[in-house]
Amino acid sequence: PAAAATPQGDALIGVAAVLTACVTSGLAGVTLEQLLKRQGAISLWLRNMQLALVGLMLSLGMAYWHDRAAIERHGFLQGYSALVWAVIWLQEFEPDLQFLLGTLLVLSATALYSAGTPQRKKDS
């Protein structure tokens, strides 16, 4: 009998990939904490924007490198019709009470943080 055509993985490569991911994740955390605790460091908001832009550039670059011809022919969001977006929205988004309370908490915390602390008047 012919052998079944099932994909086989290499356990050593899998373990090495997981260990590499763990080490790089730890290094990223330590580096981010060092950047945030440095004297005169820029704000967390700006640092997040910088990191997001770098990630976006790398992701777009890799997508273009792997699928250049299709992206140039059909665009980056090829195959994403209005129906696909509707299915993604309806299948994935299931707000429950915990989600709504969490959203309310985050929005309230953001508003309070943005308001700052009131300044006291000094008696002369």
From TrEMBL:
<protein>
    <submittedName>
        <fullName>Uncharacterized protein</fullName>
    </submittedName>
</protein>
<feature type="transmembrane region" description="Helical">
    <location>
        <begin position="97"/>
        <end position="115"/>
    </location>
</feature>
<keyword id="KW-1133">Transmembrane helix</keyword>
<dbReference type="Pfam" id="PF04142">
    <property type="entry name" value="Nuc_sug_transp"/>
</dbReference>
<feature type="transmembrane region" description="Helical">
    <location>
        <begin position="44"/>
        <end position="65"/>
    </location>
</feature>
<feature type="transmembrane region" description="Helical">
    <location>
        <begin position="12"/>
        <end position="32"/>
    </location>
</feature>
<keyword id="KW-0472">Membrane</keyword>
<dbReference type="InterPro" id="IPR007271">
    <property type="entry name" value="Nuc_sug_transpt"/>
</dbReference>
<dbReference type="GO" id="GO:0015165">
    <property type="term" value="F:pyrimidine nucleotide-sugar transmembrane transporter activity"/>
</dbReference>
<dbReference type="GO" id="GO:0000139">
    <property type="term" value="C:Golgi membrane"/>
</dbReference>
<keyword id="KW-0812">Transmembrane</keyword>
